[in-house]
Amino acid sequence: MGSRMRNSKAEAVSVVDGHTMIISLTGDIDHHSAKRIRGEIDSSLFTLRPKRAVMDMSEVEFMDSAGLGLILGRIACAEKIGCKLTLLSPSPQVMKILDLAGAGRLIEIRQK
Amino acid sequence: MTTNLKIETERRRSGRPPENLKNELRLELPSNSINEGIARSIVSVFVSQLDPTFEELADIKCAVSEAVTNCIVHGYRDTHGMIYITIKILDERTVRIEIRDRGCGIEDIKTAMQPLYTTDSEGERSGMGFTVMESFTDRLSVVSSPGRGTKITMIKVLGDGRRQSIK
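Structure tokens for the assembled complex are given below, as produced in the milestone run.
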């Protein structure tokens, strides 16, 4: 089993496709990276003010409860600007964290 | 192969794991948030000697990440200090992880451990750290003295059959 000794750098890249903003998250999302990621997402969200946003989780390699906080916080931000946020393809590990907080009741979760 | 067979025989005879299965790692890291990832990666490499499943290893990494983050965010708050991590292989399927700080301690452990409880007023922290540690390990103990620090001990039993496969 390969294990890297280095943290995989987390990134959030946002692109707009029609009325939908697609936020692609990659790497390790923890307390260390969440603050920067949050800033990147919010600046796109409040500038572009899309009707819909999709957070693509398929390339997230690790997430702990800081990532959960990031998602719950973004649901609140999206609501403020009348945007519907959807989560796309979280891994089984990420899904376990989401389930602990019952996040499925707060946000639509789809698989690719 | 011969060595493995010998280990098995010794274990069966004594009812206890042979000494060479026991292993221990001690680690001290300053409370910089970059060390959250470094700590969980080191623990992950060390635990890999027990050949855990991908899910078990992911659970351990997550629980360690939560405990180390707690030391940084709560224990030391706006100050800095050292985080002390000890991992012990107790037998061929049991690992004990102890994560300790010398920070401010927790006044009310019961309240702090409530799911969704957070001291964060900005609504950006989920308050699920202890819930993750509790759910992803088999035993969690929290010992804290206000003003002196907090010690979190987690035990993870691998391949115990209670594991649920996720799809």
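Chain A has one domain: 11-110. The domain at 11-110 of chain A is CATH 3.30.750.24 (Transcription Regulator spoIIAA). Further analysis is deferred to the final report.
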